[in-house]
Write a structure and sequence with these properties.
single chain; alpha/beta; Alpha-Beta Plaits; Rossmann fold; seven-stranded parallel beta sheet; 16 helices; binds 2-acetamido-2-deoxy-beta-D-glucopyranose; Peptidase_S8/S53_dom_sf; serine-type endopeptidase activity; Peptidase_S8_Ser-AS; signal
Length: 765
């Protein structure tokens, strides 16, 4: 979220004043809890659930404010309670869990970056059936006047739709149409925590005052808009992935975050409203399946046949940083497009460096003096160009070098401009390496990698009169290699269940052009008064709706496919290599990426239409998975809203969840009793379902990894009718390796026409 300084200040004040109030009245502070009720064990003395909820609540707290009741994704309610009341409530009969609400956040990199539109998308066949598919986007709302929400040529709203168009001061019933078929907003949790919404700052309605929700929803299912661009950059046709699918907007994110009770209410409603896909570029919760709001909501959405697609997070390149990892969620990482926005810096010594920028204004007419912000500041960390940190007399008329980090990139350009600088070179520090992100800067600017930054700083130190100039290079196409995994994209291994590979796949999430709000400029800065219909931003927030939209197209083409089947089709047809045979690269390392970075690979929309075979999974499979995790019945109930008893005589294996990829954690030499030389064997079982023509598939394993033997049995499978299922096992026999070692391979079933691929990621822990 773009938290301007003003908003942060407001938040701090609010927290302080609440504290003050608590001191003076001695009233214990309340916070929001999500109460999960054991619906099937309601005492018969109650006539209905609401009465029961009410009575449970009254027994611990008189006059507590119930925020929402939930009926679809879980049974229960959310309420403001003191810690003491929450503790008492948890001990009441029929209460499954009392979970403190978690605040989530958007998975954007927060400041606009550069763009791109996919080249192949125009080729994707879209039948009229696509207009029967409804994509729910849980985000910051929508800016309904945009052409991307135009409903020209769309038939009336599908009869399956049961939702509504909620109105507010800034959103009326004519804001919805046959494209934007519904819009709701969920603010009770937000307002209970932080006080009433200030309608001069944000809309108490589905209207998007931030831009993020408009961007994600138009990426998933925006209508075709010719001649879209940002200041002339990335000019072309803008379109969502599923241009005929319908959009249902659920605003759950506000200026200060996305609150768990609101998210749960939105998921609950989305299920009741009859959506087919839920797109959530939100994360930050706890990961246990019985405590994470998104995971709990997604389970029940999945049980209703709804595919839930989530962003993997922007915490890369650290390993084990991936979020939204429940196996019933489709988890999407981010990669680049083949489009770039070069900007060139030429130094007084003749050296030239290539960076990126989305600055489109008046350019510098020639070389000007160059200064390092760290040497032109009155503050100790002046190198990052904090607001007010530059000394005007030292930067006036000069190009200022600011280091990345600390504050938003676009804000640095405003700081330089306000101090009288005429240009900015944004240099990466070690933590950003060579990852380049361009923004709609407010003066001539270029973002450069760490290596260039070091060289330029050396030049300034060694030359008594350093100078430079900056020139824009417009929009460059067919940039290779592409895609490249974004440095910020969150990585595996899976922090909770190492046998399940996450993320599932990658999609465009760097430099994405899509619709934007009219409420703020492209940088999101308060003082940026520019208005744009399209903006170019980055994050796994942007890659997630690409997959959501593609899932909608697959749902239209194959209406009987389960969420797992759709995800399988997207994963088994994803690619991991460039045309020249090299593996997709990683910006973070400059070398090949691995399945821990890209999952099954980069999404290939055309191939996903006809995958041949799929790895299907249903509610029962996931329940068995939870049994394999040794979850208690109560934990399973909290996670899934279902009664399920694991059979004590059955051996459940996490390895047997019918997942389209293989993650194989093995014990390292030191942790195996018996020491070096010991080997271990693990067996994974999978079942394939035929969704194509009858035929015989044979298996191949990409490369035998030294020290791991991979055995697939049987080696060929013959499928007759559509829907026929066949199982196989993969046995991994591995020697011991030092902790931290990883090895990768892939497995492929092929009938000569279809190629059903799965990544294999082995790690010694
Ligand atoms: C709804 O809003 C639109 C645009 O903001 C406006 O033109 C229209 O008059 C409004 N309609 C009603 C019924 O208020
Ligand atoms: C900053 O100032 C110090 C002290 O004058 C100098 O040694 C250093 O080279 C300067 N660094 C840059 C990048 O200008
Ligand atoms: C579950 O419990 C069994 C038996 O105690 C144990 O072997 C297994 O490792 C446990 N599984 C997990 C995922 O903790």
């Amino acid at each position: 979220m773009k938290l301007g300084l003003l908003h942060i200040a407001a938040l701090v004040l609010l927290v302080l004043s609440q504290y003050g109030a608590a001191e003076s009245t001695k009233k214990p502070a309340k916070s929001t809890y999500i109460i999960h009720m054991d619906k099937s064990n309601m005492p018969t003395t109650f006539a209905g659930h609401l009465e029961w909820y009410d009575s449970s609540l009254k027994s611990v707290s008189d006059g507590a404010d119930m925020l929402y009741t939930y009926n679809s994704v879980l049974h229960g309610f959310s309420v403001r309670l003191t810690a003491k009341e929450a503790e008492l409530l948890e001990k009441q009969p029929g209460i499954l869990s009392v979970l403190p609400e978690v605040r989530y956040e958007l998975h954007t990199t927060r400041t606009p970056e550069f763009l791109g539109l996919e080249k192949n998308e125009a080729l994707y066949p879209e039948s009229n059936l696509a207009s029967e598919v409804i994509v729910a986007v849980l985000d910051t709302g929508a800016w309904p006047e945009l052409k991307s929400y135009d409903d020209a040529g769309l038939s009336p709203v599908p009869s399956t739709w049961k939702g509504t168009c909620e109105v507010g001061k800034t959103f009326n019933s004519s804001s919805c149409n046959n494209k934007l078929i519904g819009a709701r907003f969920f603010s009770r949790g937000y307002e209970a925590a932080l006080g009433p919404i200030d309608e001069s700052k944000e809309s108490r309605s589905p209207r998007d005052d931030d831009g993020h929700g408009t961007h994600t929803s138009t990426t998933a299912a925006g209508s075709v808009v010719p001649e879209a661009n940002l200041f002339g950059f990335a000019s072309g046709i803008a379109r969502g992935m599923a241009t005929k699918a319908r959009l249902a907007i659920y605003k759950v994110c506000w200026l200060s975050g996305c609150f768990g009770s609101d998210i749960m209410a939105a998921m609950d409603k989305a299920v009741e409203d009859g959506v087919n896909v839920i797109s959530m570029s939100i994360g930050g919760g706890i990961t246990d399946y019985y405590r994470d709001t998104i995971s709990m909501g997604a389970f029940n959405a999945m049980a209703h046949g709804i595919l839930v697609s989530c962003s993997a997070g922007n915490s890369g390149p650290s390993s084990m940083s991936v979020a939204n990892i429940a196996p019933w969620i489709t988890t999407v990482g981010a990669s680049t497009l083949d489009r770039d926005f070069p900007a060139y810096v030429t130094l007084g010594n003749g050296k030239k460096y290539r960076g990126v920028s989305l600055y489109n204004g008046k350019s510098l007419s020639g070389p000007v003096p160059l200064v390092f912000a760290g040497n032109a500041s009155s503050s100790s960390s002046g190198e990052v160009c904090f607001t007010g940190s530059l000394v005007a007399s030292k930067v006036a008329g000069k190009i200022v070098i600011c280091d990345r980090g600390g504050n938003s990139r676009a804000q640095k350009s405003m700081v330089v401009k306000n101090a009288g600088g005429v240009g900015m070179i944004l240099t990466n520090t070690e933590s950003y390496g060579e990852e380049l992100v361009a923004d709609a800067y407010l003066l001539p600017s270029a973002a450069l990698g760490q290596k260039a930054g070091i060289e330029i700083k050396k030049y300034i130190s060694s030359d008594p009169t350093p100078t430079a100039t900056i020139a824009s290079g417009g929009t460059e196409l067919d940039v290779q290699p592409s895609p490249v995994v974004a440095s910020f994209s969150s990585r595996g291994p899976n922090p909770l269940n190492q046998q399940i590979l996450k993320p599932d796949l990658i999609a465009p999430g760097v430099n994405v052009l899509a619709g934007w709000t009219g409420a703020v400029g492209p940088t999101g800065l308060d003082k940026d008064k520019r208005q744009v219909n399209f903006n170019i931003i980055s994050g796994t927030s942007m890659s997630c709706p690409h997959v959501s939209g593609l899932a909608a197209l697959l749902k239209a083409a194959h209406q009987d496919w389960s969420p797992a089947a759709i995800r399988s089709a997207l994963m088994t047809t994803a690619y991991t290599k460039y045309k020249n045979g090299e593996t997709i690269k990683d910006v973070a390392t400059g070398s090949s990426s691995t399945p821990f970075d890209y999952g099954a690979g980069h999404v290939d929309p055309m191939a996903a239409l006809d995958p041949g075979l799929v790895y299907d999974a249903a509610v029962e499979d996931y329940l068995r998975f939870l049994c394999a995790l040794n979850y208690t019945s109560a934990q399973i109930k909290s996670s899934t809203n279902r009664d399920y008893s694991c059979d004590s005589s059955t051996k459940y294996n996490v390895e047997d969840l019918n997942y389209p990829s293989f993650a194989v954690p093995l014990e390292s030499a030191s942790s195996i009793s018996g020491g070096a030389g010991a080997s271990s064997t693990v067996k994974y079982t999978r079942t394939l379902t035929n969704v194509g023509s009858p035929g015989t598939y044979t298996v191949s394993v990409s490369s035998q990894i030294p020290s791991v033997k991979i055995l697939v049995e049987p080696e060929s499978l013959t499928f007759g009718n559509m829907g026929e299922k066949k199982s196989y096992t993969v046995t991994f026999t591995a020697g011991s390796m030092p902790s931290g070692t990883t090895s990768f391979a892939s497995l492929k079933w092929s009938d000569g026409k279809h190629s059903v691929g799965s990544p294999i990621a082995i790690s010694w822990t």
